[in-house]
Amino acid sequence: MAADHAGWRLDRFLSQALPAFSRSRLQQLLEQGAVSRDGRTIRDANHRVKPDETYRVAVPPAAPATPRGQDIPLAVVYEDRDLIVIDKPAGLVVHPAAGNPDGTLVNALIAHCGPAMLSIGGEARPGIVHRLDKDTSGLLVAAKTERAMASLAKQFANHTIERAYHAVVWGAPREASGLIESQIGRNPFDRKRMSVLRAGGKAARTRYRVLEKFGPAERPFASLIECRLETGRTHQIRVHLTHLGHPLVGDPQYGRSRASPKARSPAEAAAFAAAAGFSRQALHAWVLGFQHPSLHRTLRFESPWPADFAGLVEALRGLNG
């Protein structure tokens, strides 16, 4: 490295040294641990370079542009020639993207529905008209024909799809029900996160209703909430509940750890441990309803809680005696 680059941010230095790569691609490689100096991995794009240092960038081979089918088990709730409804488990990514080139729901759908699926809505995300976050469980519909793709996409755009989620949050909102309305966009200080913005972003509306409170009535430890989406922004429920002051239990990106009170009984100890140890955001898409594009009638599905979510709620109910 030339002395006149000393003090530069690492991503800036690499973008000049490797002009074939965009700065965003180099930042992505940094985050993936592909950049090293003297055998030590460096992930911080803000790392300052020094004279006479040598950096190594290990660029992984390009993923195939077209997803391939993979034999991944699917919990099929409903299927016909037009569409398929899946009960997605937590941990399954919906479509291939940076860091997740395969092993996704799309790969499973191609294997399950056949290669014709690739022609529906574009090869990158065939059949996908909406998404659930990797660690959100629950119901998702995918199109198997262009007609179904267009119809479902229009229903999502018009906000006529029924979508209800169950969430476990820290504390409990002051109001038993309400509408959270804001603009949501990329956090200006952390592009991986979304946030409520005063200017810019997109309009987002979430209706919520408190179903159960866990712990003392005057200051609940946690609560079970139903959320219904009127819009579908990235991370909308997670961002809105955090903005309300009640982030999801287990959310590694928007949540925060909460000190547990001193347990006065085995039931309290179990409840506090279940909440502190929950390994994903406690969010489950339990209702999905839409107009079928060919049958011309409304289909509505409900998904029972997965075992981890049910176990969390059951443990928290121990706080209520």
The low-confidence runs, each spanning 5 or more residues with pLDDT under 50, are none
What class, by secondary structure content? alpha+beta
> What is the arithmetic mean of pLDDT?
90
Number of domains: 3
* Radius of gyration using CA atoms only: 23 Å
What is the number of helical segments per DSSP (H or I, 4+ residues)?
A: 7
**What kind of assembly state do the chains in view correspond to?**
single chain
State the helicity in percent bands.
10-25%
CATH topology of the largest domain: Pseudouridine synthase
CATH level-1 class of the largest domain: Alpha Beta
What is the terminal separation in angstroms?
A: 66 Å
* Main pleated-sheet profile: 10 strands, mixed
Strand fraction: 25-35%
Tell me what the CATH architecture of the largest domain is: 2-Layer Sandwich
Describe the 3D structure.
The protein contains seven helices and 13 strands. With 321 residues, it is an alpha+beta fold. Helix 1 (10-17) packs across helix 2 (23-31).
